[in-house]
Amino acid sequence: MLNKAIISLFLLFIVGSYCQPVSIQFFYQWPGYDYINYQVVRLSDGKILQNVTNINPDQYGIWGFLTTNDTSEILLFGTASNSIQVKSFWPSTDSFQQEFIASYPYSFTFALQPLLWNPHTLTTYVPGLFFNENERAVLSLLEFKLDTAQKTYPIELGISDTTTTRFNSDPVGAYDGSNYYYVYFSIDNIDGLAQYSFSQNTSKLVTFIEPVVPLKLHGIDQLYYFNGQLYYCKYVTLVGVTISTMSFDSGNVVVIYKDNNIATKGYQQNIQPFVFDPTTGTILILNTYNGNLYIDVFDILTKTVIKSSSLPNTIPYETVMIAPSVQSN
User: Fold this and answer.
1) Could you tell me the pTM of the whole model?
2) Are the C-beta atoms of 320 and 26 separated by less than 8 Å?
3) What is the domain extent for residue 119?
4) How many domains, the chain?
5) What dihedral do alpha carbons 205, 209, 214, 218 form, nearest 10°?
6) Residue 47: other Cβ atoms inside 10 A
7) CATH number of the domain residue 95 falls in
């Protein structure tokens, strides 16, 4: 069972009215993973507050943030030498340090998305597909225990592919901050949500009554939980962006925001398009096009874009590890 008090430190639900992150931080890896670049960019004017590049001798591949507080230690989850590794990065000294190494005894795949980290049990959770002994993909909550004395296995969520049905994409999920993990999945002609309870170790499934068209298009999607509601973000190349609410209880999906301004923003899917900031209750929508970085700040409570701006772009192509930063100068 998760230690709720500790986990809540990393998933705060503090609402800032008409606020937004001051800066964003990101890691970029050269093709081949020979170097890791870390930058902090201020959103008001595009000023680069920090920019450092480190040699990456063990070819460490970053899969996601475990913690993002760049005033002290940032924890990163990734892989190197066929093992799971957690490394810390210290912005104050621009240095990496090895923290944990563990093996994984099964085959899996998952989409890049926010990870759930329990520092008390040294366990990372992320929705994904686990491949069983019959090589069937099983919808799962992948569990990685970094205490090497324990072997870990996926938490299966009750649906798998068959000889005639296949998952359309890797699942994405969101933790509610107390007990439930929600996982959006798409298999064959079915879209739905799985709900997993940590306290009861049980899962339930619901399929959507009327899946909206954007769910069927290939693109980048993310699921976030904020203030009692699930928000599903979809970015489709050369089409645009939608943000929808999803209800596990009713199975309803409602589009609350849509933008298909291709002429200005391009929507060419060059970088991570969504950055969720639970502290301010906002979702940043990022696009790079014609040398510019376009930023739309979507306020979750008012369900509106409260600010749109453009800056000279400094984020490298295919940067997919972006998070809010607390640095301002």
Assistant:
1) 0.89
2) no
3) 4-325
4) 1
5) 40
6) 13
7) 2.120.10.30
